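Module 6 notes. Inverse folding takes a fixed backbone as the condition and produces residue identities as the prediction. Think of it as a translation problem where the source language is geometry and the target language is the twenty amino acids. Below is one complete input and output pair. Work through it position by position during the lab.
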């Protein structure tokens, strides 16, 4: 496993085309173990396409992706989950008819070790003990995200903010080394955003998870990110600390659309 500060995820020369449309062009970056790395950019900049390449949902047209030192460019999504890459989606992907508890248990599925025979002998073999152990893990996650009061509720009946927490819980249940968060605060009110930011910080600092996040709320991005990459029309135009990115004239032009615009407060200019 990558040591803190060493590259955990690395993309080199990643390009992605859909027919004649270029979604990404020669993008290179690395996410270091133990950090919160954010990708920002205007709508249509290629942010979700880049995360989809990292998770295996898309396969790059060109370039390579490495995770924890291994080339995973052609590795299927399910195998990336098995080696420690979890994710949430911009559009919620919960099982609306299932309970919160069962939705989170889905995230533990690949960790189940029992085979056919122990499954058939559930009450006599180790499968029952294994499931109990997994449920303890899930209950820990439920407590962490403060959703105890809805643990038995049907996921589809919850408010949007709570469903976002359940989606995060399911991704955490994988116990990933790297968690990919696609707009985790989209559609939330101020209080919900503050709670989500706190959860992400705690995941990083207390649970030791490396975070790759797409987020439009620039205040949150600048407050909790260690480093930030900016995409525009599928190309990387900046990367660095939040302060350096805020001060970059190329970034301001990408957001403002005017090369000669004078910006007194870069953070205000980058607000959605």
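Target side of the pair, the amino acids:
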């Amino acid at each position: 496993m990558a040591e803190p500060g060493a590259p955990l995820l690395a993309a080199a020369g990643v390009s992605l085309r859909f027919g004649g449309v270029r979604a990404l062009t020669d993008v290179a970056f690395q996410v270091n173990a133990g950090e919160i790395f954010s990708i920002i950019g205007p709508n249509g900049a290629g942010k979700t396409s880049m995360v989809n390449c990292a998770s295996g949902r898309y396969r790059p047209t060109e370039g390579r992706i490495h995770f924890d030192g291994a080339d995973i460019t052609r590795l299927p999504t399910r195998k990336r989950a098995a080696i420690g890459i979890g994710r949430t989606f911009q559009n919620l992907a919960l099982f609306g008819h299932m309970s919160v508890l069962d939705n989170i248990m889905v995230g533990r599925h690949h960790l189940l070790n029992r085979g056919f025979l122990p499954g058939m002998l559930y009450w006599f073999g180790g499968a029952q003990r294994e499931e109990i152990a997994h449920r303890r893990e899930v209950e820990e996650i439920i407590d962490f995200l403060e959703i105890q009061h809805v643990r038995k509720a049907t996921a589809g009946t919850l408010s949007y903010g709570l469903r976002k927490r359940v989606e995060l819980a399911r991704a955490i249940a994988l116990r990933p080394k790297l968690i990919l968060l696609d707009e985790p605060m989209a559609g939330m009110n101020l209080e919900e955003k503050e709670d989500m930011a706190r959860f992400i910080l705690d995941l990083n600092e207390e649970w030791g998870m490396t975070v790759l996040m797409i987020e439009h709320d620039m205040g949150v991005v600048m407050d909790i990110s260690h480093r930030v990459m900016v995409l525009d029309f599928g190309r990387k135009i900046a990367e660095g600390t939040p302060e350096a990115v805020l001060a970059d004239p190329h970034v301001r032009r990408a957001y403002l659309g005017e090369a000669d615009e004078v910006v007194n407060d870069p953070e205000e200019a980058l607000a959605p």
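Reference fact for the lab report: The chain has two domains: 1-84+176-272, 95-174.
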